[in-house]
Amino acid sequence: MDNLQFNRHRRLRQNSTIRDMVRETHLQIEDLIYPIFIADGEQIKREVPSMPGVFQLSMDNLRAEMEEVTALGIKSVILFGVPHEHDKDEHGSGAFSHNGLVQQATRAVKKDFPDVVVVADTCLCEYTSHGHCGIVEGGKILNDPTLDLLAKTAVSQVEAGADIIAPSNMMDGFVAAIRKGLDEAGYEDIPIMSYGVKYSSAFYGPFRDAANSTPQFGDRKTYQMDSANRLEALREAESDVLEGADFMIVKPALAYMDIIRDVKNNFNLPVVAYNVSGEYAMVKAAAQNGWIDEQKIVMEMHTGFKRAGADLIITYFAKDIASWLKG
Ligand code: PBG
């Protein structure tokens, strides 16, 4: 051993107190945003088959859900609407209707739980008959005509009480258009959490079951990004920052940890990781088979998102994580 030089890294791992003292990343309840699906109708509590533990809820079941969420200490939710098929149309007008599902749910949450931060998902795909995130003409998804509808949707969500607008449509210029629409309506204080770094991904499959938003023709590849690309993510993020985004979402999360880090290193705004439906489904399925330790895996994944650079995490595991952090 005499002339053998090496460092003893194990010194700082020798017991749990020392390990706690030198831990670099901490997952906290404040980091979590919990997604909720609002179904049209009454007395609906329908579990999404590919997402055990995630439900489509009608308005009359929302209060009980919010009581559970707030009792766990979760401070923020993101709302998605699940309208009836027969209420969908070419322009997704349910997205910007005064009595739209997200608008109604937002009003209900803000009335009974005023301190909860309500994030509104601003997209058309749940409300369009063709399932795309923009106006369609001759099989094409039109960019500029869609922008007005997105701004209208954002304004109507804020009128209902939404605290943060989260546009997920990936049209070019959507942050600028929404910022302008909000400002003109007097909502210059409402932040935009842009889903500007959104990849075209098979990991959204279970969400499309949950939200009935599968495109009726083609796919989303002309507006969502190619999963092979990294510089493209930086270009997208740069545009959104210039257009006035206040937060940047990177989505999905697990297969895109490098992108989370890139966005964190290149831009000075809070980064949000979205741990999407397919990632949730994979963990749940393996856990139900007894193949993995769900709690350990979920905590490791979410701590990993934070280590990669995420400040916040949108996650279907929020309730589980909150109860584990408490316990
Ligand atoms: C709407 C939207 C989607 C997700 C969030 N907002 C679906 C999509 O783009 O197809 C996916 C979320 C998830 O998979 O958990 N555009």
Automatic annotation (TrEMBL):
Keyword annotations from UniProtKB, A to Z: Heme biosynthesis, Lyase, Magnesium, Metal-binding, Porphyrin biosynthesis, Zinc
Binding site for Zn(2+): 123, 125, 133
Binding site for 5-aminolevulinate 1: 208, 220
Binding site for Mg(2+): 236
Regions crossing the membrane: none
Pathway(s) annotated for this protein in UniProt: Porphyrin-containing compound metabolism; protoporphyrin-IX biosynthesis; coproporphyrinogen-III from 5-aminolevulinate: step 1/4
Residue sites binding 5-aminolevulinate 2 per the record: 277, 316
Biological processes annotated in GO: protoporphyrinogen IX biosynthetic process
Pfam families associated with the record: ALAD (PF00490)
A cellular component term, taken from the record's GO annotations: cytosol
UniProt catalytic activity: 2 5-aminolevulinate = porphobilinogen + 2 H2O + H(+)
Annotated catalytic residues: 198, 251
GO molecular function: porphobilinogen synthase activity; zinc ion binding
EC number: 4.2.1.24
Cofactor field: Zn(2+)
Annotated function: Catalyzes an early step in the biosynthesis of tetrapyrroles. Binds two molecules of 5-aminolevulinate per subunit, each at a distinct site, and catalyzes their condensation to form porphobilinogen.
Self-association state and partner proteins as the record states: Homooctamer.
Protein name: Delta-aminolevulinic acid dehydratase
